Amino acid sequence: MRKPIIAGNWKMHNTIGEARELIEALLPLIEKREREVIVCPSFVCLSEASKLLKGSDVTLGAQNMHYEDKGAYTGEVSPLFLKEIGVSYVILGHSERRHIFGEKDDLINNKVKSALKHGLNPILCVGETLKEREKDNTFEIIQTQIYGGLAGLENENLAKLVIAYEPVWAIGTGKTATKEDANEVIAYIRRLLSEKFGDEIGYNTRILYGGSVKPSNIKELMEMKEIDGALVGGASLKAEDFSKIANY
Ligand code: PEP
Question: Among all residues, which ones are annotated catalytic?
Answer without folding.
Answer: 94, 166
